[in-house]
């Protein structure tokens, strides 16, 4: 299903195939020979989303752009089932396996592999042909690849990347952080009240 959001409509190449249960919302451009499977959600929340040619977005994957972080996914890239890409730039011939998470401001170079349930954190840069092992976390620039049991090291790098400041413009030390975050983000998401179904 396609939706107009903030006055922008999806633009889908006639050679692309979009499952009837996929949701495509807002300023989204989908290139030639792309496949978007059942349950996938591609939503431009104020920033544009561009899929090159021959991109496959599998079942229940989520691709989300923000005003500060648009999304670009290069040619011949596969976004696996239940993967999530938020405000990131993905190169050509990239494999994002089942359950991967890619966060705002991340940049993934050509021919990288992010394996099952791995994470590419906020503002992290993967050089071309980097492999993030199953369940591992890539964090920082220069990148550190860490197994999930190394929480203290992940947190030390992640804290410097400042998720609440970068994504929501809020200081992590704000006493009522979640109150401010949910109210601010909720107001932004409420803009969907004016969306218009196109099919």
Order of helices and strands: EEEEEEEEEEEEEEEEEEEEEEEHHHE
Architecture, according to CATH? Answer: 3 Solenoid
Class from helix and strand fractions: alpha/beta
What are the segments in which pLDDT stays under 50 over at least 5 consecutive residues?
none
Q: Please give the order of strands in the largest beta sheet.
A: 23-22-19-16-13-10-7-4-1-24
Strand content: 25-35%
* Largest pleated sheet: 10 strands, mixed
**CATH class identity:** Mainly Beta
CATH topology: UDP N-Acetylglucosamine Acyltransferase, domain 1
CATH superfamily: Hexapeptide repeat proteins
What overall form do the CA principal axes indicate? Answer: globular
Number of domains: 1
The number of distinct helices, counting runs of at least 4 residues, comes to 3
Q: First CA to last CA: what distance?
A: 6 Å
**Helix share bin:** 10-25%
Determine Rg (CA atoms, Å). Answer: 17 Å
The count of DSSP E runs of length 2 or more, i.e. the number of strands, is 24
